[in-house]
Amino acid sequence: MRYGKVVEGVFESRPNRFIAYVTVDGRRERVHVKNTGRCREILVPGARVILEESDSPGRSTRYDLIAAYKGSILINIDSQAPNKAFGEYISRSGMFGEGPRVQPECTHGDSRFDFYIESDGRRIFAEVKGVTLEDGGVCRFPDAPTERGLKHIRGLEACISEGYEAYAVFIVQMKGMTVFEPNYSTHREFGLELERAESMGVRVLVLDCTVAPDRMEVDGSLPHRYLHSFS
User: Fold this and answer.
1) Would 124 disulfide with which of 47, 104, 117, 195, CB 3.0-4.6 Å?
2) How far apart are the first and last CA of the chain?
3) Which residues contact 52 (CB under 8 A, 6 or more apart)?
């Protein structure tokens, strides 16, 4: 996935989930943040950030904040980017067969999943999560407790019991990571449920990405590991 016109700025503050103040070419800009999560480890005063200029007339903010540097690592924090990147990956990877039929945002039971895919007799539900938290080459999800994420994992388990294929997809929104782990210290129940889901047949897919100021594209996969073994 690619962005339009991007510029670099310096992060100042974030008064709420949706708005931040950024210095761009010496002027203070009020910008829209395309991620309602905390991002506390990333959006710190003085951080270099990447903004996409909007082409929508009449907007109250001129820019969207889409990425930030954590030291030398550029982290895409656009919450819409993982689904877009995975949607492109479905089409070109071949892992779901040739010419799969893809339905985004599909409701099944009491869950709403990011993708439903049909191909060559296969029926597949996939839930996508963006990974922006890192520590020394280890990337983790979630960065805050996520009851919604926990519900999604349990929903994928239900799909397996009904005869569907199910994927928990983690899109790593940065380059240079070596392994993925659930973030047990932040939400232990999510980590344990992910272990349980994989033991039941849910496929855990961690996808690595090339990340640049103007694009993010899946370019490989990463291993994942657990700190516990479900029994």
Assistant:
1) 117
2) 40
3) 3, 4, 5, 6, 63, 64, 66
* pLDDT tens series, the chain, 231 aa: 999 999 999 999 999 999 999 999 999 999 999 998 889 999 999 999 999 999 888 889 999 999 999 999 999 999 999 999 999 999 899 899 888 999 999 999 999 999 999 999 999 999 999 999 999 999 999 999 999 999 999 999 999 999 999 999 999 999 999 999 999 999 999 999 999 999 999 999 999 999 999 999 999 999 999 986 544
* Helix intervals (H) in 147-215: 147-161, 188-200
Domains, in order of start, for the chain? 6-76 (2.40.50.580), 81-221 (3.40.1350.60)
Helix axes 188-200 and 147-161, enclosed angle (nearest 10): 10
Q: Name the token pair of 169.
A: 């997809």
Q: Do residues 183 and 142 lie in contact, with contact meaning Cβ atoms separated by under 8 Å?
A: yes
Rounded Cα–Cα distance for residues 122 and 120 (Å): 6
For 61, the 3-state DSSP assignment is: coil
Model pTM score: 0.95
Q: Are strands 48-53 and 215-221 parallel, antiparallel or unpaired?
A: unpaired
Structure tokens belonging to residue 210: 């090339």
